[in-house]
Design brief:
This protein is of the alpha/beta class. It has 11 helices and 8 strands. It has helices spanning 21-30, 44-54, 79-84, 95-100, 105-117, 130-134, 138-149, 177-195, 197-201, 212-219, 236-248, and strands spanning 7-11, 37-41, 59-62, 89-92, 121-126, 159-163, 203-207, 226-229. Strand 7, helix 10 (212-219) and strand 8 (226-229) form a beta-alpha-beta unit. The two termini are 20 Å apart. The structure holds 2-phosphoglycolic acid. 2-phosphoglycolic acid binds next to strand 8.
Amino acid sequence: MSAPRKLAAGNWKMNGLAADLDQIRALLRDQPNPGCEVLICPPATLLERMATLSGGAIKLGGQDCHIEANGAHTGDISAAMLVDAGADYVILGHSERRADHGESDAVVHDKVLAALDAELVAVVCVGETLEQRDAGEALSVVGEQLAESLPDGVSAAQIVVAYEPVWAIGTGQVAGPEEIAEVHDFMRETLVARFGEEGAAMRLLYGGSVKPGNAAEIFAVSNVDGALVGGASLKAADFGAIIAALGQA
Ligand code: PGA
């Protein structure tokens, strides 16, 4: 794998106007030599401007892509369009898309194929709801999402997996180290069983209320190779602190 193993990924979701590019300027100034790979997934409207601004120092990604390469799909964006605008990555199967747009594992699977066709790295999100966790189903839910969302034969250079318990996203309620370790160890075993060495090398991110104050504790957990950060990625000071914590982990 050519990329550094550790990855700090920011998901701006439906946030960000031109004025917010100041946060990228500040991040570039404050973190000139990060000890990890840094990825930001802004709204598609900012991709090209962010790419121009960061000149490759920050990797960029989309937040979704369509299964088709082009065609009559009003409002959608294809993987090739993301690449054209400067993206190297795309987040797929985020729980907000699974919930708001009814995306099934089968849809996510086909989006991953579309992303890989365009040579994007797919950041595939999985994670249980609170009801599922309370019912003792966290591992079985994550196992099924991995089994059905990931295509056969993928490599560690093509796929990043993000474990994002739905109950921890945007709630300030972070999963505890034991909860994260249990799921990440399970994901590693599952990926190794299916993909062998590639599964061993695939990067596993934790996501859900990651903040400067809890980042170091999360990055110390086994099989955590980085984070997918929502709210705290919008401010350079907060995301910079998370990047620094990952660089030192
Ligand atoms: P959060 O979002 O950090 O705001 O909880 C994480 C995500 O949804 O990727």
